[in-house]
Amino acid sequence: MVGDSRPIGVFDSGMGGLTVLRALAARLPEERFVYLGDTARLPYGTKSAETVQAYALQATRLLLGEGVKMVVIACNTASAVALYVLQESWDPVPVIGVIEPGASAGVAATKNGRIAVIATEGTVQGGAYARAIHLQRDDAQVVQQPCQVFVALAEEGWTDGPATLASAQHYLGPLFEGDNAPDTLVLGCTHFPVLANTIRQTIGDEIALVDSAETTAVAVADALESGGLASEGHTGAGKTIRFFATDSPERFARVGAIFLGRSIDESDVELVDLLKA
Amino acid sequence: MVGDSRPIGVFDSGMGGLTVLRALAARLPEERFVYLGDTARLPYGTKSAETVQAYALQATRLLLGEGVKMVVIACNTASAVALYVLQESWDPVPVIGVIEPGASAGVAATKNGRIAVIATEGTVQGGAYARAIHLQRDDAQVVQQPCQVFVALAEEGWTDGPATLASAQHYLGPLFEGDNAPDTLVLGCTHFPVLANTIRQTIGDEIALVDSAETTAVAVADALESGGLASEGHTGAGKTIRFFATDSPERFARVGAIFLGRSIDESDVELVDLLKA
Q: Does B2 lie at the interface with A, CB-CB under 8 angstroms?
């Protein structure tokens, strides 16, 4: 008996979602994973809801074709605008996004009820974090700040240094000024965990920092358990993690290593065309 | 007699090409323009040559449908990998890219034969600037530096300030160290002219700075003249510049204003779907 040995599908617009995969793999060592980065069309963060929904449907269709037992949307923008579309389309396969876990963790962490969320422009404009937080605590005050430059800094591997520190001060300084400042900061973009040290340096030690990669891994573990979907160990046949990208396996491997926290062999990244899938 | 009053088509992956449109409009006040930003699929700079060629063909097909007399590829990445494909496909309509004009200006500016080019990753990897420079001066030494973070800084409107200055020092400092340093810097991405002041502050006054938007406008003026395509004044019927975008006219108008150097009314930006065009 090895439980449900089918892999878990993880989907992102690019490589940032590898921070979620990293947290998943650390928490769920018995599971296998199929990761798809839609690198030909990244970033999603500046695109409209309709466009992102269409892209997310195409991308996750490929994962379903790989026989996954669950889909994790490791992309805040896609979680914000496409979660319900995907849940309806792929029912009964469970689809889990990163917004609700991050929002829950933010609500659990705050003492003064004031929560700051940093994300891409698309996520902020969609307001999904604010809605998810208010569903759990209707008197919470949510301040949202788009941080597009953080995405580029993370992809360049500038996890610290003067440009990253100056950007963090520019974005975060004003957020935490004054007597009514938030006491909690939710990293609402999967790129941002790699900048956590610089962000911590900027905001100080008093602010609770919520990493939605970690909180999503907890939610996935719970859903596997409650759905009877957990694996009890893979057989060793085949790789534990398979990677698909819609463009440039070379760049996926190189930049992805920053987010996964270990090297990725370019030959392990399979190029796919979603429009033909 | 008003010469050839058909508009000039200008195409970019997004809004950065508006620096080229700005230079064109300033130099050619008699001309009308149709600008298309493929914002649904930006950035091109991290995508493969095959993908960019396919996107560029779709995008310019729309411009041809608008009756343009010439196509300007106001995008370094697309110029680098798709110029010849577009020239063949749309012959006899002239297609002009931004690489050759920038390379020519770099060769004209250098005294010591050493030229630095900063661009997106895609442009650098393609090596088009180095090839174009060597065609004109085979003993030139070309140093290329990808500057992806500059793209995000420009789009955020951080044309100066500590994060932009620190990024410029990170990228450019090492390029101009030592006795064999280049004496010329080509801005090989249409986003970069808006960062010119910070770049100048970083490299000092001794280095020649080549803005390929300006040099492309000169090349277009020459091609209009030699091809008998110049307008002798538009009639006033219709707008001088029409804007098309493949996603989010709101963002196009807001971010585009940084690059065009004047405000853009969101209602003047027409949303188009290239896959249906």
A: no
Residue A2 pLDDT > 80, yes or no? no
The structure's pTM equals: 0.89
> Regarding the domain delimited by B8-97+215-271, which CATH topology (the fold level of the hierarchy) does it fall under?
Rossmann fold (3.40.50)
Q: Which of B148, B158, B251 sits opposite A155 (nearest CB)?
A: B148
Distance CA(B34)–CA(A217), nearest Å, equals 48
Q: Which of B21, B56, B75, B132 is catalytic?
A: B75
Answer yes or no: B189 catalytic: yes
Quick one: tokens of B269?
Answer: 């930006």
Judged by a CB distance cut-off of 8 A, whether residue B48 touches chain A is yes
Structure tokens at B228: 């008998």
Q: Helix, strand, coil: what percent of chain B each, to 5?
A: 50, 15, 35
**What are the two backbone dihedrals, phi and then psi, of residue B184, each rounded to the nearest 5 degrees?**
-140, 140
Q: Which of A15, A39, A47 to mutate to test the interface with B (most CBs of B within 10 A)?
A: A47
Among the listed residues B78, B60, B51, the one whose alpha carbon sits nearest the alpha carbon of residue B216: B78
Q: Among A63-77, A233-247, B224-238, name the most confident range.
A: A63-77
User: In angstroms, how far is CA A39 from the centroid of its own chain?
Assistant: 15
- In chain A, CATH 3.40.50.1860 sits at 8-97+215-271, 99-212
A99-212 CATH: 3.40.50.1860
What is the spatial order of strands in the sheet that A141-146 belongs to?
A: A141-146, A114-119, A184-187, A208-211
Are residues A220 and A69 in contact, defined by beta-carbon separation less than 8 angstroms? no
| ipTM summary value | 0.86
